[in-house]
Give the backbone structure.
Amino acid sequence: MKDLLRFMKTKNQVFIKQNEWIFVVIMSVIMAVITTAPYLYGYFTAPEDKVFTGVSFLSITDTPVYYSYIEQVKAGNFLFENLFTSEPTNIRNLNILWLDVGMFARIFHLPTPIAFQIYRIICIFLFLVVLYLFISRFFEKRKQRFFCFTFALFASGVGGLAAPFIKPYLSAGYYHWPMDLWVTESNIFLTLYQSPHFIVSLGLMLLSIIFVLKNNLKMSFLSGLCLLFLFQFHPYYAPFLYVLFGVYLLWRGKPLNFLPIFLISLPSVLYHAYLLNFDFPTFVRAMQTQTLTTEWWLTLISYGFLLVFAVWSAIQNFKKEKYQFLILWMIIGFTFLYLPIPFQRRFTEGLSIPMIILSSVVIFEFLYRRDHALPRLYICIFALATLFLFSNVFNYTRAFGIYQKKDMPYYVSKNVIEKMYWMRDNLDENTIVLSTKKYSAFIPGFSGRRVFFGHWSETAFPAEKEKLVDKFFDDDVSDEWKDKFLKDNKIDYIFYD
């Protein structure tokens, strides 16, 4: 540990002391408990005739996709297929993150949802170490680090506070909600709650930034390695990080430092370009997947007073060198949120962090002014907690509330799950299954078998296939049409309950 701390030291950062690491471990345990409690509640309160799926309100359709990757590795496949569409995979693809999760489940013989959650908890501990290292670069005093670190774990926008006032607008669907109520990447708390791959992704992003901020050519090689792994399973961030690092290093008069970052991480980008060109399901999925940013006023609500305080702090501190990268990150980050590309919303990942650090500067100075009377200080703390924490309190209570209903997709009949396990143990891996929409998303995740239709973006041409599925299960449609449909689409089994 001493060697690590010496390695991470910079000219404007003091060593991290042992009692600080104790604090990080304690906070890691607290965050692991807090973010796992809803899942434990869902599991232990499951009715006798139902199985808790482990799906969260943040990722109703995507969690079964992650499960399908783990199931494939448990079955001995270390390269992945898209099991949510009937079209054959031309090229099995590599995803090192889900391969690692799958190997973890395979080695320890863990059920897929359990392995998913344990891996997520492990990632929380590792990520919080990286987060504390990053924050420590901007604060020398232990008290400031503790405040910013704790603040970062819970801070959010004001979507929860604004919800009652924009309730008619919310009924139009998620894209009409403030992002701090439904976008995993929008803040750290939701990232830690949702999935291990988001945690690892953000951790690698922060590590790469730590090395870039060294302004050292050797450290640029390590930054490139971080991005090599990051882009291998999350290539979306390549354009943003290349621009951010390129502009920063050019501005700092170190343009050559960008070269190893780009060249070392480039193979992962080229690999995904290769898949897009030669694997049909990958190409179709990329073309039909749209993760767009909400309207500008909803985005302002999504970050709320984090953005207000961050702008205030940026105006006060833009001449201070150590905060200039954070200001640049904010400017480029918000620009990318509205570029004319189909995955705008991906760039919310990590965007709250520069706002949190910059906000912490002015909030800390305000809270620790000596002229504050104690009652007044408590009122200020309560007001700040309401402004910055309410959305995540809202999200947290919503998680418990959803699991109280014991409905799909959070709970599935035990009989249905057992049938999926039977399929896993008895059907050939190349089997194509047709199912009602109610269960089609879970078949790949619990059986590892391919479905004709199962996901809004993983399935090729989902709108057309959804209509065909509805038509097939319509009693008024002729058997002749159904027989032809099954033969034309090479469907082997029908799953119906």
